[in-house]
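Re-run with default settings, no changes from the original entry. Doing this only to confirm the output is reproducible before filing.
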Amino acid sequence: MDGICTLANDYVFDQLVALINSIEAIYGQTMPVCVYPYDDNTAKIAAELTHRPHVTLYDNQDSIQKWDKFVQEIWDIHPSAQAHWQKIGSDKYHRVGTHRRYCAFDAPFDRFVYMDADTVLMSPLDHIFTQLNHNDWVVYDFQFKDMSHVYSISSTKLKELFPTERLQTEIFCSGFYGSKKDIFPEQKREMILEWLRQGEAEVLFDMAPDQTILNYMVMRLGISNYNFALNLPAGTATGNAVTSLHFENRDNILDDKGNRLTYLHYIGLSSQLFSRVCAGENIDFPYRDIFLHYRYLHEPEKRPKFTTKPKVYNAPPSLGTRILRKLGLVKY
């Protein structure tokens, strides 16, 4: 069975609804969706999904605990990650819930496309699933242009492990990928841990924990991978990031120079921003209308109606806000 999966908790509820609605806009309720829980804070999600029979909230605790344990073992091996995280006030394991997307390798789909909760689907995924007939890992992004958020580029071991050509073509963003069930069985997970124990852990980039581990596992195990961004005919590949401001909106579908996007990724924007906008704050950000269209696709009457002048999402804080922050009286 094919399906789409994502990772969420109630803090990203509005984004999750937008994603599910964007999938329904293309597939109706024929495409099954699975939501992996980032943590136990999922009451709002569970209530929402009672109205969506094609969407399930993953609850296999054995699977969840297996992957939690696996990634904790990885970061226990890493030479500096935990000291770094403690310096920046993080927990012993930084954003450990992000790894729960790995549960997709257990269930419920034989083949799946994983999409971050801060994405919206723009096109059918036939090309991704078709390519999975030929490769075990399929992506469509330009992360290969910036290795610094995938591996620790100061590691001397990195280029011993992977030739420059592989680093320039095989790295990927963990926000969108197609793959298959059971490609990381126990034997291969043990191989990964052993290689890391032998000193390879230093190549992992600790501030993008799920992304660095996925890249390492796919590349180190030699899993067959394919990136549409590197293989489509010249001039036909599209961008996907909200930082690209040239996309054209045609009936709530974005085009990149005449080519329809597969997905839009609101990468780098805080989940608080979406919650505040949905609560009625008039904060502008790129492709806000696209987000609001899909968030309120089935309940347009609840879409916020803004009457004030919009604030820019990345505007510097006012002097008063800066003072209140310094006093610890506001968080943002």
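The longest helix spans residues 61-77. The chain has one domain: 1-332.
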